[in-house]
């Protein structure tokens, strides 16, 4: 494994009768943006808390740069929890300086770094405000600044884009790209799958505590079964349902989307569509990450 890689190796965690994580394994490479996606309760936050040492795994190991992650390594990580982890009555600048010093930065360096991130994240006019007086979007920016202010070696972000307006999403996206470009492994969870697809080098899809999809978005979509959108105004309802090896994904008046099984010739679908009358559109495409995700959480696999 490459240097500075963060590895989660066969990590399991139970809470009573509930299995939150079941032998979960994935890695985040240096300079990589890794998207960690799953439904609520799938195990994303539990995995992140184990990486940070907030929770202890029942089995398995977390490693960074080939070594088990301990306290010293975790002080070099930046963590952004989904729930607000800030002191509500503390001013923005004072809070960031304090958190930077907690991570070991000298006072002068902590001030410089805090001011730098306040400026870069568009918070200069709010630097003297109490966090509780900020909008939710600005609180989210402060939370990101808190994760970055000590110049971490690893970034672990739980739903960092939640509640942000489009401009703030662009700002945060650029910051994450810049951090990854310096060689920092960056892992974040998000329900905004179009954003994950656009930003991430690789993705892990988790369902009921198990990884059910893992790899680059290009690889995952390339390996997925192809789909065809057919617009045939004269086709009767259910015309595609009986075609061998073909699964109907959605059907609307005049428009049907089908998924092709292995070795199914798309021309057979076209022939069947033409038998019903004129075909105005016949478009083959690969599923998006959102479509893969829906398959994974309903059927247990992206395949």
Automatic annotation (TrEMBL):
<dbReference type="Pfam" id="PF00005">
    <property type="entry name" value="ABC_tran"/>
</dbReference>
<keyword id="KW-0067">ATP-binding</keyword>
<dbReference type="GO" id="GO:0005524">
    <property type="term" value="F:ATP binding"/>
</dbReference>
<keyword id="KW-0547">Nucleotide-binding</keyword>
<dbReference type="GO" id="GO:0046677">
    <property type="term" value="P:response to antibiotic"/>
</dbReference>
<dbReference type="InterPro" id="IPR027417">
    <property type="entry name" value="P-loop_NTPase"/>
</dbReference>
<dbReference type="InterPro" id="IPR003593">
    <property type="entry name" value="AAA+_ATPase"/>
</dbReference>
<dbReference type="InterPro" id="IPR025302">
    <property type="entry name" value="DrrA1/2-like_C"/>
</dbReference>
<dbReference type="InterPro" id="IPR003439">
    <property type="entry name" value="ABC_transporter-like_ATP-bd"/>
</dbReference>
<dbReference type="InterPro" id="IPR050763">
    <property type="entry name" value="ABC_transporter_ATP-binding"/>
</dbReference>
<keyword id="KW-0813">Transport</keyword>
<keyword id="KW-0046">Antibiotic resistance</keyword>
<dbReference type="GO" id="GO:0016887">
    <property type="term" value="F:ATP hydrolysis activity"/>
</dbReference>
<dbReference type="InterPro" id="IPR017871">
    <property type="entry name" value="ABC_transporter-like_CS"/>
</dbReference>
<dbReference type="GO" id="GO:0005886">
    <property type="term" value="C:plasma membrane"/>
</dbReference>
<dbReference type="Pfam" id="PF13732">
    <property type="entry name" value="DrrA1-3_C"/>
</dbReference>
<protein>
    <submittedName>
        <fullName>ABC-2 type transport system ATP-binding protein</fullName>
    </submittedName>
</protein>
């Amino acid at each position: 494994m490459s240097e500075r890689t963060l590895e989660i190796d066969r990590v399991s965690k139970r809470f009573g009768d509930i299995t939150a994580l079941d032998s979960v394994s994935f890695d985040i490479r240096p300079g990589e943006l890794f998207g960690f996606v799953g439904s609520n309760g799938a195990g994303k936050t539990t995995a992140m808390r184990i990486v940070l040492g907030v929770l202890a795994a029942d089995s398995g190991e977390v490693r960074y740069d080939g070594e088990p992650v301990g306290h010293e390594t975790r002080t070099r990580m930046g963590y952004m929890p989904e729930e607000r982890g800030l002191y509500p009555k503390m001013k923005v600048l004072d809070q960031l300086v304090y958190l930077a010093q907690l991570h070991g930065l000298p006072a002068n360096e902590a001030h410089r770094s805090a001011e730098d991130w306040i400026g870069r994240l568009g918070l200069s006019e709010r630097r003297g405000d109490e966090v509780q007086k900020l909008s939710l979007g600005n609180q989210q920016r402060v939370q990101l600044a808190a994760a970055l202010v000590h110049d971490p070696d690893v970034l672990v972000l739980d739903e960092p884009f939640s509640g942000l307006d489009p401009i703030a999403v662009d700002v945060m996206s650029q910051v994450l790209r810049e951090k990854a470009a310096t060689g920092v492994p960056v892992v974040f969870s998000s329900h905004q799958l179009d954003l994950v697809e656009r930003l991430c080098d690789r993705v892990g899809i988790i369902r009921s505590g198990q990884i059910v999809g893992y790899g680059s978005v290009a690889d995952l979509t390339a390996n997925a079964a192809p789909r065809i959108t057919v617009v045939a105004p004269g086709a009767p309802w259910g015309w595609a349902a009986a075609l061998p090896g073909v699964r109907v994904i959605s059907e609307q008046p005049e428009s049907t989307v089908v998924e092709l099984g292995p070795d199914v010739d798309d021309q057979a679908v076209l022939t069947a569509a033409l038998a019903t009358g004129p075909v105005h559109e016949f478009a083959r495409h690969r599923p998006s990450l959102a479509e893969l995700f829906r398959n994974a959480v309903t059927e247990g696999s992206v395949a």
